[in-house]
Design a protein that fits this description.
73% helix; disordered C terminus; homodimer; mainly alpha
Chain lengths: 431, 431
Amino acid sequence: MEIEVYFKFILTFGLILLAARIGGELFERYLKQPPVLGELVAGIIISPFALGGLIHDPIILNFATVHGAFGLHEFNVMEVISEIAVIALLFVAGVETDVGAFLKQGLTGALVAIGGVILPFTFGYFVTMWLAPGAGIAGWLFIGAALTATSIGITVRILLEMGTLQTRAGTTILVGAVIDDIIGIVILSIVVGISSAVKAGGEINMAYISLDALKILAIGFAVWFALLIIGVKLNKYISRFLLNPFKKSGTIPIFALIIGFIIAYLVTLVDLHPVVGAYVAGLMFAATDEREDILDKTRPVMLFLAPFFFCYLGMQVDTRLFWGGAILAIILIVAAVLGKAVGCYIPARFFGKLSHAESMIVGIGMVPRGEVGLIIAGAGLLAGAISRDLFGAAVAVSLITTLITPAMLRPFFKMQLEPVTETDKPSHQDE
Amino acid sequence: MEIEVYFKFILTFGLILLAARIGGELFERYLKQPPVLGELVAGIIISPFALGGLIHDPIILNFATVHGAFGLHEFNVMEVISEIAVIALLFVAGVETDVGAFLKQGLTGALVAIGGVILPFTFGYFVTMWLAPGAGIAGWLFIGAALTATSIGITVRILLEMGTLQTRAGTTILVGAVIDDIIGIVILSIVVGISSAVKAGGEINMAYISLDALKILAIGFAVWFALLIIGVKLNKYISRFLLNPFKKSGTIPIFALIIGFIIAYLVTLVDLHPVVGAYVAGLMFAATDEREDILDKTRPVMLFLAPFFFCYLGMQVDTRLFWGGAILAIILIVAAVLGKAVGCYIPARFFGKLSHAESMIVGIGMVPRGEVGLIIAGAGLLAGAISRDLFGAAVAVSLITTLITPAMLRPFFKMQLEPVTETDKPSHQDE
């Protein structure tokens, strides 16, 4: 009876969430690591290439390998659900952003973010070109892009746990990570655009690609900036015309999240990735009076769905390819750490006039790639731009950079830090 | 670019939720009707057979017609998501149920369910035999079977929205609907068996079919009852061993909902429908100390997803088939309403000793056929036992019975209802 196919998808949905929850719990409780890492590792363990492969069923945990791993000949139901999950995640992240502080601390943070994008991207691009020449320009671009991102969630979590979110270094990291995320996501859109152009024509016309990239960048920033300004300047009108009609029925948060999904699609029409739209849609609502209400009712949806995304990502790691790409992964990890640390240290130290210890904290604090790196690598895999072993290497970078950051940060936190509230007198002390 | 397929699914997901929200809002505000009806009607309006058909895209709002409306040859992504939505709905309904009251109303509910199966089945069988003699015994059986089902989803939603889930009448309906669903699925198995026997040899081995049906019935009830007893009697152990490990990380509600999805699948192994499992899983947690916490965090997930299910249901109605079988449909609707209302009123009034108003609420509350009627009719269509216009008539029954129920219920809700907590003194009041 064919209806059983649907039942098996339900089981798979449940099993992925279950594995994610258990993995997240174990990592948090016994390894004192963010749950997101446990979700990812759980995914690697239950993937069709590991435990899942032991279940001899074409769907249960093995859907990814139905009719060729990521061929769309057969729609991958779980892929659509994971897209829905990551859109919910980015939407809530957008709503949670403090838009005011975001704009005020913008310049230093922007410079740190840009420094933290240029170096890792360059390193990632050339390391991949050197060690995986067969991946082609699209593959090199994707790995470069995957190294640019900074995980806001993981960084904030670490800063909070160390009680240093309110320091000058902490604020700089926060703003830098937010801007970095946006840049990373815009880069993702550009890279997706280029890789599809490469796939379509075969001919690699650098002038055309540069022009195309510039176009995407311009349109992307314009759309993004427009939505941001709408959110910041016109939030009263958003409340009045968009949200208020749903006040009486108590469905403002649901309606806001639906708008997030619609905008997530709409930005794809100008070649941005849906997650950019979801994040900016969230920002749109971040300055409204309904913010707390929206967060209160959409966060549970996000908390339920987001682990699905990370576990699903982990499931796409083919562990059998780990050793084949081990050298590449190790060199990429070194490139990722050095690129971020140096790329962020320099602007913080010389433009932001932070102390050496503070600048080191900023540099190292920006190292974890976390979920955004995974989003970019996952998009590359989906677009067919990077192979499974390159994807595995990118996942290793996300995983390892996140795992080692707390230990690297600890020595610098022992040094004296400037509280952010006293930044009016621009101090230039070394520790 | 194939990745756009995914983006289009995201858009469709967003559009369905948007249409549902607007439809629900309009119905609630201007027609003073439960939002669920607005969601259904919104679905009919945006279906591939109406507005959606104007969008010349194979996916956006038109996914249902890809490779045949109900053929499962191509997996329907949206179908899986709608299953997830209805499971979340039934899980939350289960958690919200007052388990003590549920057990107290068990016998009455069972009798209500049986009464609500016998009459509609008989009516449906003979009306079809009279108006569509060419359909043959298999066709008559399928239409009869389609009339027996009660949509727990729609009934629960209406009860929740009217705040009457906790009343004695509400609990009786719930018990009746759950048992009804089990009976309905057993009947479906019987009917499928008979119709395939008719198609194959013409010889109908009633002994074999009866034995098979009896087996499904026994196993189904045993599993369902076991889960119910576990929830009621062993809730302290559920808290201690299943939920407490997730207390510190605040993920008890998410974990409970995940368990709901797993159990929803597990019951399908004994031929029960997933929604029955989801509901019983919810019941398992309804008696735990963590109940409020679970409700608080899973209700937003349900409120976000449930409208998708109802709108999606509406989208499967082919409005063009309405006129062909109009007379049959109208008479079937009358038969369906009368059969359920009378068949359920009598046990409620005379065995359950409910008041006239309460018994009317039970009788009318059991009227909506919703998704289970559609599942049975769809199975008949798939098996070739019923024709397209008979199918259209069955869809009309599901739809109209659902549309008219809230309006029929309203007058009786204005009368005094017994809270279920005071059932110790078996009242026998007329309003």
